[in-house]
Structures are given as C-alpha cells and as structure tokens.
Specification:
397 residues, alpha+beta, two-stranded antiparallel sheet, 6 strands, 64% helix
Length: 397
C-alpha cells in the first residue's frame, strides 16, 4: 500500500474515492479500506459496486463482514455508519488468564479500551476495563469482574442523538448492539466528535448549494455539476427579486433617491434573516428544536426582527431624511417615515423567514441546511424591496 496514495485517498470525497478504488485489485482495495476511519470507510463502502463488495467480504473476518454489511442498511446520518468491529469480545465464562493471552497479540495491532463479555448468540452482558483485568485473579472469569448491563448505542440511532449520549457519559468507546442485545460493533467517542465536526464544517457550504461530500480533492467536473444547478436556482430567484423592482419602475423613475436605499434595506433584512437561520439550524442540529417549540421560535424571531428593525430603522430614517433634504425633495419627512416602516416590516419578515426556511425544508424531507441561504435571500429581497417601494408608491404617487 502506497502511503502517499493513502494520504490522497483520505482527502477525497466518498464518490471520488470509490471510483478510484474500483480500478484496483481486491486485496489492494481491502488494504486501503482497512486503513481508513470508520466514518470515511462506510461512505466509500456503500458506493462500491455490489460485485466488488461481495468479493471483498469473502476476504475479511466474519466480525468485520457483519459491520460492513450493516453499513448498507443504515442511513448516512446514523451512528452505526461510524462503527467498527468489536476490538475484543469473549464469552463471559472465559478465564481472565485466557483473555490476557488472547489479547497479547491483538493489542499490537488495535487500540483496545474495553473487553466485551458476551453470552449465547453474541449477546452483550458486560464490559471489563483493563484495570479490572490487571487486578483480577487469573482463575476468575469475565463474569466475575465485569460491569453488567452496560450502556450500548443502537446502529440506527441518529448521529445527533448519539452525540447527546456521548456528552452525558464521556466514555472512550461505546458498544453497538441491535435491539435484542446482539453485539455487532463499537464506536469510539473521538470518532463521534470528529463526524459531528465534519457535519458542522459542511453546513456553510450547504447553505449555498455545495454538496456535503465535496472535498478539496473532488474533481472539478463533479464540483461543477453539483454547484451549477444551485447557481441556476439562485439566478431564477434573483430574477424574482428583480421582477419586484421592475414592477415599481415608475416609482423609482419619479423618486430616484429610492434606489439608493434599496441595497441598504436588502442588506439589513438579509442579515436579520441569516441570524435567525443560524440559530434555527443550530437548534435542529443539536436536537433542541421539537415541533412544539416552533411557535415559540417564530414569535421570538418575529419580536427580535421588530426590535432590530426599530433600532436600525431610526438610523436609516434619519439618513433618508437628510439625504432627501440635500436633494431638495419636498417630502423628505414622509420618505424617512416610509424608510423606517419598511425597515421594521422587512426585518420582521426576514426573521420569520430565517426560522421558517430550514423548518420547511425539513418538513419536505430535505436537509434543512441545503441551499437555505438561496431561498432566504429571495425572501428577504422580495420582502424588503417590495415593502419599501410599495409604501412609496401608495403614499407618494
């Protein structure tokens, strides 16, 4: 196995890596897969061809095959996609001396934190730490020294739920068991945190239509194909905002100074919406936001939009007043009032939109972060420009 190629492989997204691995021989593919973290391994494994997977499964031990087959049945955001084979599992009636002898070679190849004690059909019944093994009598069995009924993760458990459990317990390793208690794998606490960090780092790109899986080494062709549709959607939504401005073209022609304040309103309302969007996405990511919390969230963001709108609206209104006076406009005070009302209304609408966009995407079954910034920008531009020009047309024309 080439160390440089392995380093390059670790920087690839799952799709690119799977395509590259398909060109290698089965033993080479297996060597590279075994050198990857469980998080990257599971993504690549599910994208390999079924024929290739079946050939590789014939080359791995049974306990590894169980884990790799499980990857195919699990959602990409489930905790089970991060599991690896149990590092050390023995029947509960095994003598301590036999366990120590059995681990003597294993610990040279694998980091082992706990010994898992099992019974019939590989049911997990306890765990043993190395400290207990060290002080135990060699004639004792694992059943004599094990911690019974240990906490275990379920393979289908959402990653966010698993993260909350990790935060509560702070164990270095967690056994993974099926509903009937069968031990099928383990997940290291560090891997859970790394996976969550990767998800969080990907959110910024998802907001503007960048695939979650795209990495620095993703080929430009795939990056183009994944990004271009979202840019076209952004162009379409920009035309919608442009259409609103075009509808009030007569008002802008009559009162040209309105055009100066259009980007100011759009910028302020857009930032208000992004703040609400960030808080909502954080709540969804951490599992803090349930359906019953949605009305409370919307009330809060609407109220914050109003308060922020008043605060920035006063400053914007004063700026409009003095600018209109400098342009010798006879209705400078009316323009200032329209600016303030528009700023308040657009900030309220933007706060509500910032909270509503990710919630709507989630209801539709999409990732709440996917292109949410594109939809939010359209909502805030239409609300701010439409309200500002609409009020100016109604009150001044």
């Amino acid at each position: 196995m080439d160390a440089q190629l392995l380093a390059t492989l670790k920087l690839m997204d799952a799709k690119t890596a799977s395509i590259w691995l398909e060109s290698l021989r089965d033993p080479e593919v297996l060597d590279y897969l075994l050198a990857l973290s469980s998080n990257q391994l599971s993504g690549i494994w599910c994208l390999l061809s079924e024929v290739r997977r079946n050939r590789i499964l014939a080359l791995v031990p049974a306990d590894v095959a169980v884990v790799w087959r499980a990857y195919l049945t699990l959602d990409s955001d489930s905790a089970g996609r991060l599991m690896e084979r149990p590092a050390a599992a023995f029947p509960s009636d095994t003598l301590v001396s036999d366990v120590v002898a059995g681990l003597r070679e294993s610990i040279k190849r694998t980091l082992i934190t706990y010994v898992f004690a099992t019974e019939a059909d590989n049911k997990l019944v306890g765990i043993v730490t190395f400290r207990e093994l060290l002080y135990a009598d060699p004639s004792q069995t694992l059943a004599d020294i094990m911690l019974r009924n240990p906490y275990a993760l379920r393979p289908e458990m959402p990653l966010v739920d698993a993260m909350r459990e990790v935060v509560k317990r702070h164990f270095p390793v967690y056994p993974v068991c099926t509903e009937d208690g069968t031990l099928i794998g383990q997940i290291r606490g560090q891997v859970l945190f790394e996976a969550q960090a990767i998800d969080i780092s990907a959110q910024a790109g998802q907001l503007v239509g960048v695939e979650k899986e795209e990495r620095l080494n993703t080929p430009w062709q795939r990056s183009f194909l994944s990004r271009y549709p979202w840019l076209m959607l952004n162009l379409l939504t920009a035309f919608i905002a442009g259409g609103v401005v075009s509808y009030f073209q007569g008002t802008i022609d009559s009162i040209a100074l309105l055009a100066v304040f259009l980007p100011i309103l759009a910028g302020q309302s857009g930032n208000t919406g992004c703040q609400a969007l960030a808080v909502t996405l954080r709540g969804l990511t951490l599992g803090e936001l349930s359906d019953k919390d949605v009305p409370k969230l919307l009330r809060k963001e609407g109220w914050l939009g109003f308060l922020n709108g008043v605060g920035v609206g006063v400053v914007a209104a004063l700026a409009m007043y003095f600018y209109a006076r400098a342009q010798h406009h006879p209705k400078a005070l009316m323009l200032a009032g329209i600016t303030m009302l528009s700023m308040i209304g657009s900030c309220v609408a933007s706060g509500l939109a910032g909270a509503s966009v990710p919630l709507t995407l989630k209801k539709l079954g999409a990732d709440p972060a996917t292109a949410s910034s594109i939809f939010l920008t359209t909502a805030t531009d239409v609300a701010s420009m439409g309200l500002f020009l609409g009020l100016a047309t109604l009150l001044l024309m």
